[in-house]
Amino acid sequence: MMRPRNDGATECGRREFFGFAAAGLLSVVPSFRRFVPVQDTLPSTGPSGRLWDPARAGRPLDPVVAADNDAAIQAIEKQLHCTCGCNLDVYTCRTTDFTCGVSPEMHRQVIALAERGMTGQQIVDQFVREHGLTILMAPPKRGFNLAGYFTPAIVIVLAAGVLTFVLRRWARAASGVPAAAPAAPTVTAAPEELERLRRELDQLPT
Amino acid sequence: MTLLGTLALWLAFLLGVWGALAGFMGGLATPPRPDLARSARHAVFAMCGALLVAVVSLEWALFQHDFNVEYVAAYTSRNLPIFYTWSALYAGQKGSLLFWATVLSVFGSLALALTSRRHRHLLPHVAGVVSVVAAFFISVMLFGHANPFQRLPYTPLDGSGLNPQLQNPGMVFHPPMLYLGYISITIPFAFALAALLSKRLDADWLVAIRKWTLLSWLFLSIGICLGMWWAYVELGWGGYWAWDPVENASLLPWLTMTAFLHSVMIQEKRGMLKKWNLALIIGSWLLSIFGTFITRSGVISSVHSFTQSSVGYFFLAFLIVAGVSSFALYATRLPLLEAEARLESMVSREASFLFNNLLFIGIAFSVLWGTLFPILSELVQGTKVTVGPPFFNQVNIPLGLALLGLTGIGPLIAWRRASLPNLQRQFAVPVTVGVFTGLVLLVAGIRDFYALMAMALGGFVMGTVVQEFARGTGARHRQYGEGYALALGRLLARNRRRYGGYIVHTGIVILFVAFAGMAFKTETEATLKPGESASIRSPYGWTYRLTHLGISQYDALNRQVTAATLDVTRDGTPLGVLTTEKRQHVDALGRPTFQPSTEVGIRSDLREDLYVVLGGVVNGTEQAVFRFTINPLVWWVWYGGMIVALGGLIVMWPGGSPAVKRAQAGYAVRLVEEK
């Protein structure tokens, strides 16, 4: 069931659910009284008219062009690290909340390089020449970086090998000592005793 | 009140130091010094009281808008909703340190008060360890320029307010849940050190920490899921996990604790893996401190981290000292930790649990390795590299899938030794279900290898779980003549640990399938004037059409809102309207406090989410830029998380006499001795 989300805190179904459920736990329900539905106090001036205060809508944007949705451009941008300090790739950063001023600039640079006929790899290499390896979302698979990619796998494989070796040795040692494995006990109890045992076992809580 | 708060901090610090001295001296003295042990116990209670006074003092300052207090001015404003004013307690570095120390002292007090008489010999050391850790956190506040009661030389008219992204119900509950998870690991760690110090390394300490380990794991699980939900609905990038260093830091102790919850069963049933289990508990606690260090030091850049400050050095020093001393003590006790039984077969539950542990620790290692690799690279080759999602996905997805496979294999293999006919009987149905699932998905056109594997393995694990429930229920039905519903209920109620665990496995399967759904994510950007429409095609084959209805602007309590409304149809069928917003937060004087933030519009159903972000407007008009994303199966992430939490609650639900627990924990030990 979809509903308009004027306030975001009160009218979105999931938030309402999570918010109130957890708030009930912490007994701070009264604080929600502050989240009253709001009035549309500052309407715009008409269809496609100017907003009352455009500054409230964040950074002014240009209309979307075809290159913005180009899968090849997006694939390149997903390999490049935005330098605004957000830890995101250029594509994700420029489309997340559209407040970053750095990722749109990098996006324009990618488009410009693509329009000059450069391939995806050439564009990525150009960024690396300008910014260094930190511009890549993942280090290139060469030199010391190979350690980054393969150390976990090598360690796990080695550990699995050692574990297998040790387990086999233990298992062989156990099979070489027949007495180590307890023999199945001979049942000497009467049927009624077994039944009583069954009932008592059944009453165990765990 | 701030003076009272500072005095309370000092008192708590002194009590912590005394509690540590008295606890360790009382525990190690020969002959025993019960007077010192009692004093340590009382010191922890008193420290808890003092810290609660400090918390009340800080909350008082927050609610009174005492902006002369630097922390209050930095994280609140007069128009901040009460709900978030309360949560400002842990929104900043200094307040969260106070929150941490206080919760630890509460947990420590509960552990000392509630632990059964049988484990009393461990309690002086437990009091000592809790006191040391709490005193450390208090000392960071007092000596690391992190006192939340620090005053400013002037009083601002209003505070800076809380970061808009933290003004979300998810963010109110996600940090405390994670903190509770991190902090409660200290209690099992304290019992582990107590067992090492007292040389009482039988199964007793495991009984004492059983509930605490489950509690930590449960809080961590809930905290991580809430964090994912918050990231999804609030940050606006359309995902829930970005392999950010701070996210990784929360995952590390969860992985090691999960490994422990599996391997401890082998110690309880067979008296094996004593060394390993102790190392896992110590390692989990060190990873929780490591996570704190990552979050607070600024050593690795993260969107989640607190402002870079000197407290990172305190944590690094503490981490090194605690790690070296804990493992040094552990090394001296190794001769006392010999296994009481040996593995009898490679094809046994024990062996499968060991490989399960290997994968958990392997994934933890690879996450840690990736998180620290930028630092390592800078040290070795002088170049700092970025290690983002592509790296982590490449390394961890195969490991995660292997772990999912083992989730289904483990329960199918018998303890001690499995025979071939037994294996055939156990595996037939789950393997058939897994293969059938994979084939159906292949025929349905799914070609993404990892997604296909995740869903096929999910089918296999669900086959295992359903088979286990069906066989258990059927056995009760045959043996006791119970109806199937009653038999299922009693099966679960009387074997909570086993079948609650299977419910957790079900939740994990659902999570993996939901993660796989993101392989089919679709997104597009569009600029729309009012009345114009854009279309986006779902991976399920239908098409959404979104028509821009217009933009309105209005004032809310502490923000100025610009809201765009869209009419949504699916293949021509009206679905309703969706609103997405830009919010400019302001203080009580109307001054902007942060950059405008985005509120996402989300339309969810069980199959997919339609996720709409208002990018901004063109030339100050109602012509707006939108990003539309279709995220398949996201709702199942939240369902999966809830099922994991439900399973965890069932496992830890109180019940069973201490005698029964001890009998379970010491089962193999007695068996061997009696032979």
Supply Rg of chain B. 27 Å
Using the coordinates shown, work out and report the CATH topology of the domain at 66-165 in chain A.
Answer: Helicase, Ruva Protein, domain 3
CATH class of the domain at 66-165 in chain A: Mainly Alpha
Helix share, percent of chain A: 40-55%
CA(first)-CA(last) distance of chain A: 42 Å
Strand portion of chain A, in percent?
under 5%
Please identify, by name, the CATH architecture of the domain at 1-162 in chain B: Up-down Bundle
How confident overall, as mean pLDDT of chain A?
A: 75
Name of the CATH homologous superfamily of the domain at 66-165 in chain A = Cytochrome C biogenesis protein
Broad shape of chain B: globular
Rg of chain A, nearest Å: 32 Å
Quaternary state reads heterodimer
Largest protein-protein interface: A-B, 100 and 123 residues
- CATH T-level fold name of the domain at 1-162 in chain B: Four Helix Bundle (Hemerythrin (Met), subunit A)
Q: Can you count the helices of chain B?
A: 21
Indicate the proportion of strand residues of chain B. 5-15%
How many beta strands in the DSSP annotation of chain B? 9
Which segments of chain B are poorly predicted (pLDDT under 50) over 5 or more consecutive residues?
A: 663-675
Broad CATH class of the domain at 1-162 in chain B: Mainly Alpha
Task: Give, in order, the helices and strands of chain A.
Answer: HHHHHHH
Percent in helix of chain B: 55-70%
